[in-house]
Write a structure and sequence with these properties.
The chain is mainly alpha-helical. The chain has helices spanning 2-40, 44-50, 52-57, 63-74, 78-90, 95-108, 116-125, 130-143, 147-160, 165-177, 181-194, 199-209, 214-228, 232-244, 248-261, 266-279, 282-295, 300-312, 316-345, 350-362, 366-379, 384-396, 400-412. Among the domains are: 23-91, Alpha Horseshoe (Serine Threonine Protein Phosphatase 5, Tetratricopeptide repeat), CATH 1.25.40; 268-337, Serine Threonine Protein Phosphatase 5, Tetratricopeptide repeat (Alpha Horseshoe), CATH 1.25.40; 348-416, Tetratricopeptide repeat domain (Serine Threonine Protein Phosphatase 5, Tetratricopeptide repeat, Alpha Horseshoe), CATH 1.25.40.
């Protein structure tokens, strides 16, 4: 009886095992293709999920681990990416592709200088790598204000992927940061042709159109409103368009709602102050500018408008104090513009980046200021002036440990 049972079991295995194996392999292959498609879309979170079956079933293959490393890098899980690269190498994965991923991981973490030339050589030898490499390089160049290099990298990326919306959006931001509104508008329009529901691109385009063509700008903001609802950027955009179209009552209604629901929205308060200055009274304008200056103490238009309203009310001493603040901001903005021009002409000099960071920190723009200072330290990790700036900032912020660290590095830096 037992012998017969064993024969039946073997018979069933011989009949059904091939089909079961084929089913598992087919299911794994389907998920693997889905992971590749997710990586093509840069949907790294989805790719990580889709790769789970092939990592388990194709345990002998290095390719799933290479793709998993790329997905992990995409979500900035760099330690996980390194583990997958090591496993891919151990399983005979493509050595060139593994090394490329490792170089991209270093660049993406900010350690670009030692690997930049090698990455460019890789895409000369293998043009199919251009989108992968240029995505990382363009993003890095944009963040570190190397705007010409960013535009060149983005154009190379778009030559390979002309329909890739994030590249058009980043190119638009690069032109906008360079002060070329016309090129920025065209890139935002191209992004919207490819993806009409790209809300950020639509609102950015509307902002660039406000003064020249407020009616077209209004159409874009209303489109975004249908998708996003009455968010602060949407309400501000609608109010600005109505203001520019000489509909002050509707602009007032929208802004009053905005500041009632979001009382700390500095841009909304500033827009309400400008409306009051043009269509209401100096008393009302002064009250709104005073509130706006609490949220935006270094905004030049707020300070200027506030000083004007104080002058109109005959409060000359207060107006003079606000004008002094305005002039200091004006001087800093002039110096900031000069520093950014120096960055464009000398992209490997940390000094103008340090100066820009100091100015921005002084004017309350911490995130931007730290990005500039970080870009200076990336070029010269021991740059004394940058460390001194950080030491002073942390001392004022009440963080003596960080202040002492940066001051020590600054003092140890060699004289230049």
């Amino acid at each position: 009886m037992k012998r017969r049972s064993r024969r039946v079991i073997w018979f069933l295995l011989l009949v059904f095992l091939p089909g079961l194996t084929a089913g598992v392999l087919g299911w794994t292959a389907w998920h693997h293709l889905a992971a590749r498609e997710a990586l093509r879309r840069r949907d790294y979170a989805a790719a990580r999920q889709e790769l789970s079956p092939s990592l388990r079933v194709w345990f002998w293959s290095g390719e799933p681990h290479l793709l998993a490393a790329r997905a992990a890098r995409g979500v900035e899980a760099y330690d996980e990416a390194e583990r997958h690269l090591a496993r891919s190498r151990d399983r005979g994965g493509d050595a060139g592709a593994i090394e490329l991923e490792r170089l991209l991981g270093r660049a993406q973490r900010g350690d670009l200088a030692p690997v930049e030339a090698e990455l460019l050589k890789r895409i000369e030898a293998n043009p199919e790598y251009a989108p992968l490499v240029m995505e990382v390089l363009a993003t890095h160049y944009f963040k570190t204000y190397q705007l010409l290099k960013a535009r060149l990298a983005l154009q190379s990326w778009l030559d390979e992927e002309p329909g890739w919306v994030p590249a058009w959006y980043l190119l638009a931001q690069t032109w906008e940061r360079s002060g070329n509104a016309a090129e920025a508008r065209e890139c935002y329009r191209r992004a919207l042709e490819l993806d009409p529901d790209h809300d950020h691109a639509r609102l950015q385009l509307a902002g660039l159109l406000m003064k020249g063509d407020p009616r077209e700008a209004l159409s874009h903001v209303e489109y975004a409103r249908r998708r996003l609802g009455d968010t602060p950027p949407v309400l501000r955009g609608l109010a600005t368009c109505r203001h520019m179209l000489n509909e002050p009552d509707e602009a007032r209604r929208l802004l009053d709602r905005l500041v009632a629901e979001h009382p700390g929205d500095g841009a909304g308060l500033a827009a309400r102050a400008r409306l009051a200055q043009e269509h209401e009274s100096p008393e009302q304008a002064e009250a709104w500018y005073r509130r706006a200056a609490v949220s935006q103490p270094y905004e030049r238009e707020v300070l200027y408008g506030w000083s004007v309203s104080l002058e109109q009310l005959g409060r000359r001493e207060e107006a003079a104090a606000v004008r002094d603040r305005f002039r200091r901001v004006e001087v800093d903005l002039t110096r900031l513009a000069a520093a950014t021009r120096r960055v464009a002409h000398s992209p490997h000099d940390p000094a103008p980046r340090c100066e820009a960071g100091i100015i921005l920190l002084r004017n309350g723009q911490q995130a931007e200021g730290f990005r500039w200072l970080a870009s200076a330290l990336e070029l010269d990790p021991g740059h004394a002036a940058t460390h001194q700036a950080l030491a002073s900032y942390y001392e004022q912020a009440g963080d003596p440990a960080r202040s002492a660290f940066h001051r020590e590095v600054a003092q140890a830096a060699p004289a230049k």
